[in-house]
Give the backbone structure.
Amino acid sequence: MHIKEFAELTGVSVRTLHYYDEIGLLKPAFVDEQNGYRDYDEKSLERMVEILFYRELDFPLKSILEILSSPDYDKTAAIRKQKELLKLKKERLERLISALNEAEKGGIPMNTFNNNEYEAARKQYADEAKQRWGNTDVYKESQVKTAGYSPDKWNDVNAGLNAGLAEFADELKKGATSESESVQSLVKKLQQYITDNFYTCTPEILKGLGQMYVADERFKTNIDKNGAGTAEFISEAIKFYCK
């Protein structure tokens, strides 16, 4: 089926499918060399289902790619673990519904919001998956570089990253374009910050991050807290920088 049909069937946007193709998470079954049209088949659908299950469990795209790309990936074992996690998630949703019923009657069901069991299980699975499948050079470099980070150091690093993203929002509010010298200098600064604190941010990796900032709704929502359109603005600035 064509990309538009595949997007409608799976509930993801065409833009997201383009991004998944670029990062190697989900390649089309066939690309027409004449017009660039992408077509998907049954195997594409099977892989998309796996991706969607991991997304439902809040796994980042980077981790999903590492897991599914591993030569010893065990699909059956992964499905069993996903079922366990989704059951925990289902139980929590059922508790929340019961809590709403209680709240309607004037009750205050505070213990309902404890989600420790699910979060602990998800973290354990994520750790196991990374240990088993986290064999990419970028992942290994990131692990080595951040191994000694204390909680305070992580807070400082993340605060610095967020401050850097906020600078783009300030430029956008001033009316600067994504191609302007001031904005392009911020892209260079962001690339260096990532290299200094996480992993070597090559132009290819930077380009992928720029696309992820708009394709991944969680990233987009977080970045746009600095101002509507900031994620799109950064993405366009990175795209120009990487030409």
